[in-house]
Amino acid sequence: xxxxxxxxxxxxxxxxxxxxxxxxxxxxxxxxxxxxxxxxxxxxxxxxxxxxxxxxxxxxxxxxxxxxxxxxxxxxxxxxxxxxxxxxxxxxxxxxxxxxxxxxxxxxxxxxxxxxxxxxxxxxxxxxxxxxxxxxxxxxxxxxxxxxxxxxxxxx
Length: 156
Description:
The chain is of the alpha+beta class.
């Protein structure tokens, strides 16, 4: 496995609201621009450990589908997934905690890429790209959740 890439941010929403947004695969494209679509398998399934899903992500060479499984699901506290096929498999974890001021959520994000076959060769290059994307993705997540008139407000 590669080194762990970590980042964090504070978001002016409750831990339950932030969790609900992050754990909804349909919202993934709103804060990760390289994702075109994502869903649970079957569509409409609820977030729970063992539930599978997939995302269509733009990568060098074109769009690819990545399948994953939920490994950690504690609403308002933790969310985790792991890639289950492909040359590179991401292990992603989120931790959510109320900020010390009690006015929002501190989000800790961790991702580690596991190379298989040719994935071992491309892992260092992909990790560099991921290292650059993660802070931008978290900034966009914060922007989406804190936006005054964002469509997410209607569902939260």
